[in-house]
Amino acid sequence: MKRFATYIVFFFVTLAALAQSDVDTQRMYLSGHGCDDMVKWDFLCTGGQNSGKWTKIGVPSCWELQGFGTYQYGMRFYGIPNPEGIANEKGLYKYEFNLPKSWEGKQIELVFEAVMTDAKVTINGRKAGSGLHQGGFYRFIFDVSDRIFFGKHKNILEVEVSKESANTQVNMAERRADYWNFGGIFRPVFVVAKPSYNISRVAIDADMNGVFKADCFINHALNGSKVKVKINSLGESVAEVRGDVAHFDFKTSNPKLWTAETPNIYTAEFSLMDSNNKVIHREKQKFGFRTIEYRQSDGVYINGRKVIFKGVNRHSFRPESGRTLSKAKNIEDVKLIKSMNMNAVRLSHYPADPEFLDACDSLGLYVESELSGWHYAHETIIGQQLVKEMVTRDENHPSIIFWSNGNEGGFNYELEPEFSRWDIQKRVVLYPWANRNGFETKHYRSYGETEEYMRQKEIFMPTEFLHGLYDGGHGAGLADYWKMMMANPRCAGGFLWDLADEGVVRTDKNNMVDCMGNFGADGIVGPHFEKEGSYYTVKQVWSPVTLSLSGNKLQAVNTYNFTNLRDCHFSYKYLSMPMLGSSDVKTISAGNLVSPNVNPGDTAYMALPDGWKKADVIEVKAIDNHGNELFTWDFKQNVNTLARVNVNTCKIDSTKDNLIISSEGRTYKFSRVDGQLKGVAVGDRNISFANGPRFVAARRSDRSFDQFYNHDDTDAEKKKTQYTLYKDQGVLKSMQIIGNVLTVKYDHGSLNEVKWRFLSGGSVEMNACYSFGGVVDLMGIMFDYPEQNVESKQWVGDGPYRVWQNRMQGPQYNLWQNKYNDPIPGESFEYPEFKGYFSNVTWMQIKTTEGRVGIVNDSNSFIGVYQPRDGRDNLLYTLPKTGISLLRVIPAVRNKVNCTDLNGPSAQPVWSSGSMSTTATFKFE
Q1: Distance between CA atoms of residues 512 and 249, nearest Å
Q2: Using an 8 Å Cβ cutoff, are 454 and 462 in contact?
Q3: How many helices (H) and strands (E) in the chain?
Q4: In whole angstroms, what is the distance from residue 9 CA to residue 21 CA?
Q5: Of 94, 144, 353, 671, which sits with the fewest C-beta atoms within 10 Å of its C-beta?
Q6: Which is nearest to 690 in space by CA: 670, 673, 662?
Q7: What is the CA radius of gyration of the chain?
Q8: In this model, does residue 836 exceed pLDDT 50?
């Protein structure tokens, strides 16, 4: 039965091969195409999990994710060539396969898209090619024409994969880095069949003027041979083969140009012909017409227009499959990046799957493709081979705008000429973190340092900035940085660090998702692309359309590089918001707006239709010319919140310790000791809303009272993520109730006076007056409520995500709600977070096990719902407990590298002075 099944498979494989033209390149996969369709091979792992026995493994894969070997994160061994405790197991692979009889006489190539890290390959007991490849992220090809069998005779492929390279410099460049180190045949394996005389590769340079240049290389000299190239409907040309190459240089007529905004792709069909004009091999290659210019001390120009790169760093990664992806997952990554209005990606820190670059070509992203070398470089001999493999595989992708030669000091300058040797387009070579070849790419400079760097003559383009960690970095500070960067004509944009948390499924730890503490939790999104708050901040700040509203006029600013806004689509809704406790958002009217004729860099206005004055909220959505949402803006007008009518009388009871006021079925207990509300009862139900209002103010603990770093405190450096509360020295002066108003006065402190006005319907209005002079990172008033009793919240305001002082963009004004959660950053990925600071809140209702606490925010304060939680390591902040609060000042959030006040004007502390007041109305149900 097994033999019969083998023959059936062989029969269909043969049919598929024969269905292809005899002159076309033919491909047969020995593995799956990716993580979604792995093929089982025989496998033995020499160490770690499930080692020492022959079994099966899916290929392609990282063997750790299949339950073998030892998980390893590179930073533990940083800078050590041969460390103790390194995971150095090997994987032994075997696979049997048949090739079609019709392939006999052809050139047969065995292709590995990538293997980590050393690969020794034998086919039918004989060494394939050189037999050894070193370097974990590169396609390598062996000609096995004289080692292969055809028809019914099986071929036996054996691969010995060493997780640690025998070359210590390969390990230093690729495996002593700040990312997960896996082992295995993690990208596809396939066999390619070509005629014995064939086109070995093509290199294309097609420019914005329609000039098509190409070098078409053949594998073996053939007298009288020539090559014909045909480009869709644009034309064709024939060139003689001189030596082993045919050169093309001709002009096409009016091709559609490639940019990230207009990703127009063409296919060139190359046909190798013998002296009788018979086609003996045919190869197809996709490409795009576009011209790149790197203008000194100016910027990067695509097709004659200056381009700004809104980019992100991206690892090839999924929690369940490590670095093994699929076509669908690569496309998913590109769509995620573009959904944030980004137009560029840096491949950190190695070449990506070909399918990812295909998606960048067809969907539109500019790419910086990188040679591996994380702080340490490959030695020259191996490095030359890896540059060749990277460039010759990927040079025809129009999306690739830059090469980079390693990362942050992992530079071997002897390799730089190798890029131009193989790249017909002569793209610039960047050195991320360094200043070279006309680009200053320095990483993680503070706001002020960035301004200083941009005074230099070189093009400024940080290849990493605003380093993410948990809820910090990325969007926090981006609006400040971007405004400053775009004001400098030599700035070409930059690349945020990084796209997604590298949380891997630990098959050795009950499938726990592990970000290795704070090392891998750097993403704008979580391991499974859970959207964090910065996702929407980036989406708004980098939107190529910026809208603002004045009356019924929408101002539209076009920051595209190539697209006119008439090609975009705009729609509107007039919304009526619900009052406190209701959830009925009504659409008064909706429709489409006439898209304005606005060229890149220009501004125009759109008039809203009649009826806008009746709306609480004007919602406007922008859709790009490919049907994707750019952003949805919700512009707040006037919102009704709660009817306020005084009650005629209140019932007053008094004890030695408390003043008890009853009104409209609610009972409020106030302390005679400190004047604070100590609890509320609705009928016979107690609601533990208490101990307020009390004044709260804090500054970062490493600050002096004059804002600056406290050099007099020898422990100040250890306190830069902590906050020190100011002590309120006030004492109760008096409590007096007249009619429906309770007045509480204080002496000597920051809190001066609190008035409670009891209203019909069971609500009560509070007005708290306070004064404070000094430097604050947080300030306002607060109450206590037991967090364990909270179930959910609903609010009309900006949402659904919390804000920071330096990350106000992204959330929009509408009705939002979410259940209580308390995720641990870097370990659990439940968003939006329940706790934090919320802006532009009109009202909020908190549902608890005791009842509902409604807050109408009459002073447009920030509403604090407890305080944001940091990771276990507390690298970003340890914030003071503020319960349920109404705040005039909220903290900024730092990034992984820089403290808050190094991140721009919005992150600075506030110098508070004079008298202030906060008014809010509470309704307990």
Answers
A1: 56
A2: no
A3: 9, 60
A4: 21
A5: 94
A6: 670
A7: 33
A8: yes
* Distance of alpha carbon 247 from alpha carbon 240, whole angstroms: 8
Question: Count of CB atoms within 10 A of residue 325's CB?
Answer: 25
| Main-chain phi, psi angles of 525, to 5 degrees | -125, 165
Question: What length does the chain have?
Answer: 925
> Rounded to an integer, what distance in angstroms lies between the CA atom of residue 655 and that of residue 10?
94
Q: How far apart are the first and last CA of the chain?
A: 73
Nearest to 37 by CA among 319, 321, 315, 316: 321
DSSP-based three-state secondary structure for 242? strand
Spatial separation of the C-alpha atoms in residues 717 and 720, rounded to whole Å: 6
Q: In Å, how far are 196, 216, 334, 477, 514 from 269, measured between CA atoms?
A: 19, 11, 27, 48, 47
Mutual angle of helices 478-486 and 533-541, in 10-degree steps: 20
What is the rounded CA–CA span in Å between residue 890 and residue 874? 18
> What's the pLDDT tens digit per position in 787-819?
999 999 999 999 999 999 999 999 999 999 999
Residue reference for tokens 């030892």: 70
Query: Distance (Å, rounded) from C-alpha 694 to C-alpha 131?
Result: 75
Instruction: Give the Cα separation of 93 and 183 in Å (integer).
Output: 12
CA angle 231, 232, 236 (to 5 degrees): 40
pLDDT at 801: 98
Per the listing, tokens 């190409």 go with 214
Helix (H) or strand (E) run with residue 262 in it: none
Element at 660 (helix H, strand E): strand 658-663
Q: Which residue has the tokens 């990172």?
A: 777
At 139, give phi and psi (nearest 5°): -75, 130
**d(C-alpha 18, C-alpha 825), whole Å:** 55
49: its two tokens: 């999990």
Contact 712, 734 (CB under 8 A): no
**What are 740-795's pLDDT values in tens digits?**
999 999 999 999 999 999 998 889 999 999 999 999 999 999 999 999 999 999 99
466 in Cβ contact with 492 (< 8 Å): no
Contact by Cβ (8 Å): 702, 720? yes
Q: Hey, is 112 helix, strand or coil?
A: strand
Query: Which DSSP helix (H) or strand (E) runs through 504?
Result: strand 504-506
Closest CA to 812 of 782, 835, 832: 832
Residue 874 pLDDT: 93
Q: Is the peptide bond before 60 cis (omega within 30 degrees of 0)?
A: yes
Q: Is the dihedral of CA 707, 708, 711, 716 positive or negative?
A: positive
Query: Where does 315-455 have alpha helices with state H?
Result: 327-339, 354-359, 380-394, 416-422, 447-453
C-alpha to C-alpha distance for 167 and 379, rounded to whole angstroms = 9
161 contacts 118 by C-beta, under 8 angstroms: yes
In the block, tokens 């202030």 appear at: 916
**What is the Cα 728 distance to its own chain's centre?**
42
CB 634 within 8 A of CB 617: yes
